[in-house]
Amino acid sequence: MKYKNFINLLRKTHNAEWEATPSTHDAIVWLNDLIQFLFPSNHLPKQTSYEGILKKNQIDLENILLSYLDPKVFDIEGVTNAFYDELENIYNNLRLDATKIYEFDPAATSINEVIVSYPGFYAITVYRIAHELVRLEVPVLPRILSEFAHRNTGTDIHPNAQIGVPFMIDHSTGIVIGATAQIGNNVSIYQGVTLGALQVAKELAEVKRHPTVEDNVIIYARTTILGGKTVIGRNSVIGGSVFLTKSVSPYSHVFNTHQLRIDDKQKVLG
Question: Would you say 220 and 202 are in contact if contact means Cβ atoms under 8 Å apart?
Fold first, then answer.
C-alpha cells in the first residue's frame, strides 16, 4: 500500500504522544466549566446544586489526569483534592485582581463588567488556575491551559511565573511574562509589555532568566524588561516604550527620553 511506512510511523508516534499528553479538548472544557462555576455568565436556576457542579468538575480533572499519568507514580486523587482545597483562595485572589482592574480603569463601570468581559482578567484567571497545577507538579496540562488563554487574549503568561495579588493587566494584547519572572503584589502592567530573557538557550532551563518586579510597580505600554538579574524596585513607575536590562532602585521613575518634534504647518508656511 502506498504510504504504508509513513502511516505506520504516524500510528507509532501518535500513540506515544497520546499516552504522554491529555486531550486538549477535554482540558479546555474542564477549564471553561471551572471558570463558569466561579464566575457564572448567566443566572443559574435556584435549584442549581453548586456541590454537584463542583463534584463533576473534580471528577473531570481526575479523568484528565488519569488519561496520561500513571496513578502508581503520580498521586492523582491527592493532587486533585489539593487543587480543589485551594480553589477558594484562587477565587478570593481573583476577586482582588478584578477589583484592582476596576479601580484603575476609568472605562470600567463595575467589577462584574471586568469579570465577564475583560481579556486581561481572563488571562489572569487562567494563569492562577494553571499556576496552582504547576505548584502541584502536574505536567503538560498547565501549558495547554495557558496557551489557550494566550490564543484568546494575546497575553502570554507562563504558568511557572510567580505573580502576587492583586495584579492588573490593562488592554491585554501583546504582553509576555516568562517562566521565571517574579512579580510582587499590587503590580499593574499595560499592553505590549515583555518580561523576558536576555538570551534563549536550552542549557539555561534551570536558571532564573526573567526579571523580578517588586510590589506596587506600574509598567506602561510597550516596555521591554529583560534578564534574570534585573530587578524593578518597589513603588517604581516604568514609562512607555522603555528598554531595560539593568535593575532600578525602589521609588524610581524611568521614562524614555526620546523627544518628539511637531511643527505647526500653518506657522511654517506663514
Answer: no
Task: Say if residue 146 is in the same domain as residue 247.
Answer: no
Grid cell for residue 59 = 471528577
Give this prediction's pTM: 0.92
pLDDT digits (tens, 9 = 90+) for 73-113: 999 999 999 999 999 999 999 999 999 999 999 999 999 99
Residue 228, classed as helix, strand or coil, is coil
37 in the same domain as 126: yes
Residues of the domain holding 218: 161-270
Final residue before a domain boundary, out of 124, 155, 186: 155
Report the alpha-carbon distance of residue 140 to residue 240 in Å, rounded: 34
Q: Which residues contact 97 (CB under 8 A, 6 or more apart)?
A: 121, 124, 165, 166, 167, 168
Give the chain's radius of gyration (CA, Å). 22
Question: Are both 131 and 17 inside the same structural domain?
Answer: yes
Shared domain for 110 and 204, answered yes or no, is no
Label the pairing between strands 237-238 and 175-177.
Answer: unpaired
CATH number reported for the structural domain that contains residue 251 in this entry: 2.160.10.10
Band (pLDDT 50/70/90 cuts) for residue 207 is: confident
Q: Per-residue confidence at 20, pLDDT binned at 50, 70, 90? A: confident
Listed in sequence order, the residues at least 6 apart from 29 whose beta carbon sits closer than 8 Å to its beta carbon are 60
